[in-house]
Amino acid sequence: MDAVNATEPVPSAESRLRAAPPHALVATAARLLAERAGARDVTLLLADYGLTVLQPVTHLPHTGDPVPARDSPAGTAFTAQSPVVEVTTDPATDVVHLPLTVRGDRLGVLSVRLPSDRIEPSLVLQLGEFATALGHEVATAGRDTDLYLQARRTRRLTLAAEMQWQLLPGRGCARAEFVIAAHLEPAYAIGGDNFDWSTSADDLTLTVTDGMGQGIDASLLTSLAVGALRNARRAGVSLADQACLADQALFAHYGGRAYASTLLLRFDLDTGRVHAVDAGSPQLFRLRGTTVERIGLEAQLPLGMFEETPYEEQVFHVEPGDRLIAVSTGVHGTRSAAGDVFGERALRQVLGATRGTPPHETAHAVVAGLIEHFGGRDLTADAAVVCLDWTGRAAGSGTAARA
């Protein structure tokens, strides 16, 4: 797409996207693709908070009609994470739908209408690279404009949900050693559930937190817990000490009146050795081959329940091909109208049925099963689901080998 007169340097597509004002990325992308690929129309679609539709980014408060996040050409590109060419009723043009993903975090889809005779594999590949560059700019622009966050909404978020979604690292993360996918429900009214992660050269730290209560009170509690855990993690202390420091921060503020159940995991990327602290109610399951098992960790006290609670780490191992699922109480403890608990049996069934699907689709299947069990999307308890596929690191590919 960058073939130009070589008499003088011409800015790359990436540099022109970086130079665009935060709110003008779609217009800039449309101009670039018109100039360099003959695009007739360009639409940026972002996944809504509930992952049910893809919302067009336009001049707010006006917006176009949403597109199903499944059962549509754009939705197929989003769920399958691969380009989809849609043959349209216009014999002269077709639409290429390209997944917009940043380091494993699925943002949405870029839809580009092109002359039919120009669509060929090499151009689709270039368009995919352009979509990736645009995705990075959209993620960065979110610091300076509300446009892309507003475009993700089918309705207004509660204040508690606004706080929780802003606290998250994203909804996915991918490296050669692992892929993470996560989701929260009820997406537009979440209060106390949270997930967090951080990866370095040699390890991955993952937490799932369930702050007691509902609404603003739960959100404030969880925000303090996550902030304290991040502060301790960034100080370089052990996983057990991270739990201890967060416990002290919560008790100092609430005096034991409120507490947060938290599962803390640290993965060694070289060995698959996992250090864990189970401080409360989130549960952890492992799918290895065709066998689903709950990883039995010693339940310790939630963060902030008592003053200066000591925490101890446990160790287990993951192997290449393992899938881990962490769920909050709002998943494994939710009851149907008849009083039946969603529970371990239902989780095992969902995990077994989704063995061959990507982590994002497995997390979605758990949420869909939970909503079906409950009888509606307006869950009475917050629910967090985190799915991690472990590949691990080949021998000799660690930090020492790269030095």
TrEMBL record:
A Pfam family: SpoIIE
Gene3D superfamilies cross-referenced by the UniProt entry: 3.30.450.40, PPM-type phosphatase domain
UniProt domain PPM-type phosphatase: residue ranges: 175-390
A single MF term (Gene Ontology): phosphatase activity
Keyword rRNA processing applies: no
Keywords, ordered alphabetically: Hydrolase
Annotated SMART domains: PP2C_SIG (SM00331)
PANTHER family in alphabetical order: STAGE II SPORULATION PROTEIN E, STAGE II SPORULATION PROTEIN E-RELATED
Designated name of the protein: Magnesium or manganese-dependent protein phosphatase
